[in-house]
């Protein structure tokens, strides 16, 4: 597949639910080999954005290009190159860890070694266990590992480390940093600003479906006059005022 300069380009994306705009003319550009963070309070529109980019939800207006291709028209070609983090409920109730990994690996032309991925994510001793029997944090780590089985060029990680303990979060960060160094582009959402600061090259802060900040962590601090990124985030997203 021809390599595009941008991993993702979104122009004028608008999504309406029940007559209400939950995404309002969103523009994004994610460069290859970078980590991009989409931020915002609960309900700001982060998951909807990912769904519209992937073409699993239809936007009323706007376009999204993924690796230079239209996900609506070239889903099969993109499927091989794009990983998406699993969400609760995406798996069969009785399936074991090894079975779900095997099932996913079978779908791809050149999958990564899923046993090695499970080892790296600290669940190498859980392969025979049922997915539903894993702890919340173990399951979250499995869901990230599953997104990496395709050996993707681009991965979408929604609520990256929700439910993980401090050590597991650091392990996940390190793995993602290593994969970025190998050229992986990462699109993530997170409610943890230390994580965003550690990982993201650029961020977009959404408020009620509109961009209220777009740029680097340093630019966010500068423009807000805040020393800490978390304070800058709260200022832009107005979470403090809303609370
Ligand atoms: N299928 C749907 N039908 C109606 N409204 C929806 C639907 N899916 C999402 N919404 C609404 O769209 C808005 C954006 O939701 P979305 O899940 O994208 O937010 P989010 O930023 O990912 O939030 P969170 O941080 O809580 O995951 C919310 O107001 C939500 O209630």
Please describe what this structure looks like.
The chain has 243 residues and is α/β, with parallel strands linked by helices. The chain has two domains: 6-81 and 152-242, P-loop containing nucleotide triphosphate hydrolases (Rossmann fold, 3-Layer(aba) Sandwich), CATH 3.40.50; 94-150, no CATH class. It is built from ten helices and nine strands. Strand 8 (202-207) and strand 9 (210-215) form a beta hairpin. Helix 8 (217-224) packs across helix 9. It is globular and about 50 Å long. 39% of the residues are buried. Residues 17-18, 22, 40, 42-48 line the site of adenosine-5'-triphosphate. InterPro entries: AAA+_ATPase (IPR003593), ABC_transporter-like_ATP-bd (IPR003439), ABC_transporter-like_CS (IPR017871), ABC_transporter_ATP-binding (IPR050763), P-loop_NTPase (IPR027417). Pfam families: ABC_tran.
From the structure above, extract its key features.
24% strand, transport, ATP-binding, P-loop_NTPase, 243 residues, 10 helices, 9 strands, nucleotide-binding, alpha/beta, Rossmann fold, ATP-binding cassette domain-containing protein, 2 domains, binds adenosine-5'-triphosphate
């Amino acid at each position: 597949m021809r390599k595009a300069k941008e991993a993702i380009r979104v122009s004028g994306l608008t999504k309406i639910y029940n007559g209400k705009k939950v995404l309002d003319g969103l523009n994004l550009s994610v460069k290859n080999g970078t980590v991009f963070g989409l931020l915002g309070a609960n309900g700001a529109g982060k998951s909807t954005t990912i769904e519209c980019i992937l073409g699993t939800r239809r936007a009323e207006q706007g376009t999204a290009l993924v690796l230079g291709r239209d996900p609506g028209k070239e889903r099969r070609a993109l499927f091989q190159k794009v990983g998406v983090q699993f969400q609760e409920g995406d798996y069969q109730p009785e399936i074991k860890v090894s079975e779900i990994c095997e099932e996913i690996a079978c779908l791809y032309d050149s999958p990564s070694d899923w046993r090695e991925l499970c080892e790296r994510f600290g669940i190498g001793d859980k392969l025979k266990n049922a997915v539903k029997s894993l702890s919340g944090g173990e399951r979250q780590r499995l869901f990230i590992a599953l997104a990496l089985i395709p050996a993707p060029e681009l991965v979408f990680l929604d609520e990256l480390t929700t439910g993980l303990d401090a050590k597991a979060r650091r392990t996940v960060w390190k793995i993602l940093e290593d994969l970025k160094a190998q050229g992986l582009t990462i699109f993530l959402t997170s409610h943890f600003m230390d994580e965003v600061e550690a990982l993201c090259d650029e961020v977009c802060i959404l408020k009620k479906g509109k961009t209220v900040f777009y740029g680097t962590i340093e630019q966010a601090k500068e423009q807000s006059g805040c020393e800490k990124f978390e304070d800058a985030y709260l200022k832009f997203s107005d979470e403090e005022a809303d609370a």
